[in-house]
Amino acid sequence: MTVVDSHLRLVGKVNDPQYQRVRKAVEVLEKVAGNIDIQLINLLPTDYEIYVQNLECPERGPVKRFHKENMLYMTGETESDMVYAGGSTKFLQWAKDVYGYDDSRTNTMFFKRLATKQFRHAMEKTGHKFFKMEFECGEESLGFVIVELFTSLCPVTCNKFLQYVRGDLGKRYQGSTIHRIVPGGWVQGGDLLEGKGDGIIEEDCFPDETFTVKHSRPGIIGLASVGPHTNNSQFYITLEALPWLDGTKVAFGQVVEGMRVLKVLEKLETVNERPKEQVTIKSCSEIKTA
C-alpha cells in the first residue's frame, strides 16, 4: 500500500548506525520527493528514550511498550496529526517501494563510523564537557554512562567534579564505591574516605553555586551535600524526576547515554539501601569532544 501522507517525522538516537542509515536515505529522498515534508529530529540517547516514553499511539497505547528500535518515524497529513508508523525497517521499505531507494550495497561499517562521528559532533555542539563512568558489581562490568556537565550554568561545580574524575587532587572516583541505591530515587557514590557515605572531606567542601538545574527527569547528576554549602566529592544520579530536591541540592549535569545501566543498578539487591554485593566505579574519565 502506497503511503500518501505529506509529512514525515523521523526521530532517532544520533549514535545509532541504523538511524544514520535512515538520515542518509532522507538526503536522497529530499531531492526526489518534493511533495513530502521530512523532519529529522536528532537526539542524544537519553533524550530519545524520554521522547519515546512520552509518546502515545491512538490504536496501540504507549509506544514504549512495543517499539524497541533506536529510531522511529511518524506520518500525518499535517504536522499536528502525526501518528506512529514504525521504525527504520518500515521506513526504508517504504522508501524502496515508493521511490526505489536501495542502500543494500553500502558497507555497514560506513554507518557505524558515521554514528560515532555524529555522536561526538552532537556533544561538541553543546559547548559542554562530558565524562564516562563504568560500573562493576563483583568482577562483572555493568556497563557505562556518559554524562553531560552543564559547564555554562555551573562552571565551578563542574570543574570541581572533574578534578575527582581526573584525579587532580590525588583523589579520584575510579575504584570508589556506589554505596547507596534507592529504587525509584537515585544511586549515590563518591565517598573517597571510607566508601560508606559517611565521609566528608571538610577542607574540600565548597559553596552551593546555583540551583538553576532542576531535577525534572531521570539521569540528573547532583552533589550529595549534608546541608547548605557542604558540597564535596559525593554525588547522586536520579532514577526518576525528583522535583523535591530542587532548591536544596546542586544539580549540574545529565546522563546522555546509559540509562539502561542505571536501571540495572536500581534492581541490584540491597540491605538498608546499601548494595549487598560491592559496586565500584571501574573506570572514569573525561571525554575529549574536540
Automatic annotation (TrEMBL):
Pfam families in the record: Pro_isomerase
General function of this protein: PPIases accelerate the folding of proteins. It catalyzes the cis-trans isomerization of proline imidic peptide bonds in oligopeptides.
Enzyme class: isomerase
Domain of life: Eukaryota
Transmembrane regions: none
InterPro entries tied to this protein: Cyclophilin-like_dom_sf (IPR029000), Cyclophilin-type_PPIase_dom (IPR002130)
GO molecular function term, any single one: peptidyl-prolyl cis-trans isomerase activity
EC number per UniProt: 5.2.1.8
GO CC terms in record: cytoplasm
UniProt protein name: Peptidyl-prolyl cis-trans isomerase
Species of provenance: Chloropicon primus
UniProt domain PPIase cyclophilin-type: residue ranges: 132-286
UniProt keyword annotations, A-Z: Isomerase, Rotamase
Organism lineage: Eukaryota, Viridiplantae, Chlorophyta, Chloropicophyceae, Chloropicales
